[in-house]
Every structure is written in C-alpha cells, then in structure tokens.
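Consider the following assembly input.
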Amino acid sequence: MREEIIVSGRNNPLIDPQLHVWHWEIPTYLFLGGLAAGVMFFAALYYLRGRENDYRTAVKLAPMIAPIALALGLIALFLDLHHKLYFWRLYTTIRLESPMSWGAWTLMIVTPVSIIWSALHIKELFPNWDWKFDFAKELIGFFEKNKKVLAWIMLISSAILGIYTGILFSAFNARPLWNTSIMGPLFLASGLSAGSAVVIWMSKNHAERKRFAQLDLMIIGIELFLIIHMFMGFLASTQVQIDAVNLFLGGPYTASFWGFVVILGMIVPAILEGLELKGYKIPVAIPVVLVLFGSVMLRFIISNAGQASRWLY
Amino acid sequence: MAIDTKKCVGCSDCVVACQTENDVPIGHCRDWVVEVMDGTYPQLEIELRSERCNHCKNSPCVRCCPTGASHYSDGGIVLVTKNECIGCSACITSCPYDARYVHPDGYVDKCTFCLHRVKKGMQPACVAVCPTKCMYFGDLDDPGSEVSEVLKKRKYKTLIPEAGTKPQLYFLI
C-alpha cells in the first residue's frame, strides 16, 4: 500500500486540493469563439462558391452574430485574467510555441474581419442604413471591391480560430485528458455544428435549411467519430491517460458527458434533423437548441474534467 | 538542486523559511513537504521530499506563456517577470508539478531558487535553513560543485520524468 500526502500543508488557492484555475470564462469563450468560427467559415465558403443568393442567411445574416459572439467572448477572456491591466502584453510579442499567443493574434485578425463582413451586409438587415460619412462609404467600397480576398482571409482565419479553441487544451501535457491532438478537430467540428445550427434557426428558406441540416448531420457524424477515436487513443495509451479517460467511463463526469454532450447534444438532434429531412414536422428550435447546448457542455465538461486529470503523483 | 530523502525529517523549516524570505502571501506556498508511506504496518517505509518548482530544462510553463513573462534566466532558473504576466494561468495548467500559484496581486508566482540571495553568493533560504543539511544547491554544469559531486556518488531520481519536462530537482534515494 502506498499513501502520498503533503505533510507541510499546502492550500494554494485555485490549485489545491485539485486544480480549478479556469472557471466559466474559458469554456464560455471557447464556445463563443467556436460559434463565431462556424458561422464565419460557412459564410466565406458559400460566398466563394458563388451561392450567396441561394444561402442568403448563411452568407449575409448569420455572420452578423460573429462580432457579437467574439465581443462577449473577449469580455469573458478578459475577466479570466488575474493581472488584467497587463493584457496588452499579449500584443507586444509573438510566441510561436504558445497556443494562447496564437489565439490572441488570431482574434486580432478574426474580430476586425467579422466586423467588416457584417458592415458589408448591414443593409440586408436595415435597408435604410446610411453610412453618413464619405470615408466610411469609401472604406466599404474598398472592401466590397476586395470581398473575395476578405472571404479567403475569413475562411482560413475562422478555421484557425475553430481549431485553436481545441489546441489550447491539447497543448497541455500536464493534464492528460486534454493532451490529445483530436481536441483541435473535435472543437472545430463542434464549432461548425453550432454555426450550422444557428443558420438553420435564422433561415426562412427551405432549401437553405435543408442544406444546413444535412451539413449538421454530417458534422455530428464526424464529431461522434472523433469522440470514439479519442477514447480509443486514450485507452490504448499510458496509465495516466487511461485514468484520465476513466473520468468519462465510470468516473465523476460519466453521466454529464454521455448524457449532455453525446446523447442530448449530438444523437438526439441528429435524429430530429434526420426526421425533419424525411419530411416529419419538427419545431426547428429543438434540434438547434440541443446542438448549441451540447456545444456549450462539451467545452465546460472538457475544461473541468481536464483540470481534474493529472499525472500519477 | 539535490535533496537527500534519507536525511530529510519533514520538519517543514524550508517551507517557513521560504515564506519569510520571499514574503509569500499568507495561505500560499512556493515549496512543500511530501510524505510517501509504503507498506503495511509494521513493515513501513517513509520517504520525505521537500518539493518546489523543478526548474525544468524543457519547461511547459515557459513554452505556453503567451507574453514571454515566464522565461529561463541565465543559469537555467525559471522565472516570471511580474509586469509582463497577464495572469492567464496557462502556465499553472501546464505544470505537472502544480508548482505555481496566482499571487493575490494578480501575477503568477513560484520558486525562484532565491536568485536574489544566490546572486550575493548565499544559498537559497530553504537550503540555508535546513537543520539536517539535506539540500545541496549549486551549478550542475560545474563538475566540481557540491551538487554535481553528490550526484556522482549517490543514486537519485527526478519526479515524473516521463512528463518530458527534464526536471532539475534531484532526489537522492
């Protein structure tokens, strides 16, 4: 029998008895960032494919929630900092090895792009919108002319943002549950799923809703595939990772992970969307809310469970 | 730094010395003593370890710091520059030893090997105060230093070397 205790007493706040340094702020930001990445990705994709009139909501309307989501996410990120007045230090250096530095600089590109894209389409929402000042009109004219370049920047930067939300976790080898490169694609897929759900919700066009329901079904399939692979990878790995994944296989996070994320957040909305595609009448809000709920829960549960996982020590 | 687990008696003087020397805020600590009990009574074996930041050569905390506040100083000691730290806690989550904490003033704090004392030619506070003289501090790159000498003679281990951080605290066993 082996017993290991700290005999001198150690009760560092946020660290002991178990790491709990990241609360609601980080998962909330990761959800909002993922959602913004999702809507921006589809907007850029369908614009570049010349489908802006077929998929008007996806290209023109849905991306307007991106700057709002990003602004709220940035507020959450700011609240998470303990040394708030020094936040600008993020932008006095570029640290290629640090995922958080990548995230900060990606946001520096994604946020203005999301605002510009929304500004270009503001007349869709408010037909009487007037830019009032000549320089604003000129600026809009400039971006209108270079919209294709902007769309490419948006496509790539939103994909980086979506992947980064997962990489932030996977880069920490000290927390075995996070330490899998599947987190990047899984969080990207979850963000894309949330993005397509929002388009389904906002759209009044039947063809567009059908296309995004198909897309969402496919993405949920990919998510389930990634989750299965995550478990396979962990269970075939070292003892620390087996212990980490056991948090979801009988451990304290089992019910919440499988119940909220996998069943309510993926399988049930997938079934409902499938039934809807087959012609059954289902209120669109139900699968959409479930997908968004699953997306939020995925981030909260991975964030909390990851902090509970540690090395044998 | 090398720490003799056979000589340590677990008195926690190192912890108190550190708190006093470095003005560590109440309720926090930069070092701590771990007791590992193996076996069943009456066949028991105890190992006592005074632990702190491992000043890893491949520090995940330095790697993940988005501002460069966490850095290696000359000689390899891992330090945090207060006014570059934004308090994002990435380094805290990245440390497999949980050696860092958020200072009530907002920045992240940790063991500095008492660099301010070392620069004056003194030993770190924990080493200086140890009543059993179980700690050896010095330059591992200097083959003649006390710590290098003791590591030549004794068996030792590091903590969780499989985490790949190349920890620089050596526990003599």
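Chain B touches chain A through 52 residues (CB under 8 Å). Ask yourself how this observation constrains the way the partners meet.
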